[in-house]
Write a structure and sequence with these properties.
13 helices, mainly alpha, 2 domains, DNA-binding transcription factor activity, RNA polymerase II-specific, zinc ion binding
Length: 304
């Protein structure tokens, strides 16, 4: 009879995240120092096992007690052999409800296109075998401030948009990133204070932003600030970044609402997209910047 199956641990079930079901702790609980508790087997399975074990126990009890010492000695090696087998680690006790897993499979899928109401809660924590990919992605995020300083763009900030509109939030964040790249032990408090001052200003600017480009540039600047704070390694900066997460989520939702209108305009002028400098090409650059900014924000949230 095959061994029973194990369900995801209680912590992963509560947070609706995928569990690798490792023992004694799954990967997610181990990296977050959470208590990893797996649900016990069902009552039906326990009763079935008990009923099956009952005849065996009865047979053992009814063994003839009048056996001789020689007979006891002859079975001693078998008893030792069984004890050695019991000392081996047991096969993992998986208890997975495949019907439920298949029914809710869409909860673990990553969509190719983002909808206005999508959230980062649909992100999946990768298992330990994906650790290299996670580390690589984090290193890429950490390189964004330097990339912006050296090249004037990062994967979610299009150089063409910056050059045409020259939004103030991006010009300011360019200076902040340049200052951060020169951070040292002697000036880090000055750097952190400067970042904090601009972050406070950026919150007000973002709330008042009305046009697509103003809101987009403000969110892009805020993402870079969050990258610096979350991945710098300073505990205080990380705590400050966590305190503004609620505000940041609301801003991203606003930006997602803008995506649909811009994408509709891009589809109407799709025949002109191959001509750099045309209105359609500029509109596509803005639409793609919106899409990449939202994706980058969710990736950062999911990784952290």
């Amino acid at each position: 009879m095959p061994p029973p199956y194990r369900q995801a641990c209680a912590a992963c079930i509560k947070s609706k995240r995928r569990c690798d079901m490792a023992v004694p702790k799954c990967y997610r609980c181990r990296v977050r120092s959470l208590e990893c508790l797996y649900p016990s087997p069902s009552t039906r399975r326990t009763l079935a096992q008990n009923s099956k074990a009952l005849p065996q126990e009865t047979a053992r009890i009814t063994v003839n007690e009048s056996q001789t010492e020689s007979q006891n000695a002859s079975i001693a090696p078998d008893i030792t052999f069984d004890a050695d087998n019991l000392a081996l680690p047991p096969f993992p006790d998986y208890d997975l409800d495949w019907q439920e897993a298949m029914t809710n499979l869409n909860d673990f899928l990553v969509p190719d296109l983002l909808n206005p109401h999508d959230t980062a809660e649909r992100s999946v924590l990768a298992g330990e075998k994906y650790q290299r990919r996670i580390v690589y992605t984090i290193e890429q995020f950490k390189s964004y401030p330097k990339q912006l300083v050296l090249h004037g763009q990062v994967p979610f900030i299009h150089r063409r948009v910056v050059e045409k509109y020259l939004p103030k939030p991006l010009t300011r964040i360019l200076a902040i990133c340049a200052l951060y790249e020169r951070k040292s032990e002697t000036n880090q408090q000055l750097v952190y204070s400067t970042i904090q001052q601009y972050a406070d200003e950026l919150i007000d600017v973002t709330q008042l932003a009305d046009s697509d480009i103003d809101l987009l540039s403000s969110v892009q600047a805020f993402i870079l600030i969050q990258i610096i704070r979350l991945l710098d390694g300073d505990i205080r900066q990380r705590a400050i970044a966590e305190n503004v997460e609620t505000f940041f989520v609301n801003v991203i939702r606003r930006l997602q609402q803008r995506m649909s209108s811009v994408e509709d305009s891009t589809q109407i002028m799709s025949s002109q997209l191959r001509t750099p400098g045309s209105d359609a090409w500029e509109t596509w650059s803005l639409a793609e910047s919106l899409r990449r900014t939202v994706i980058t924000r969710y990736c950062l949230h999911g990784l952290y």
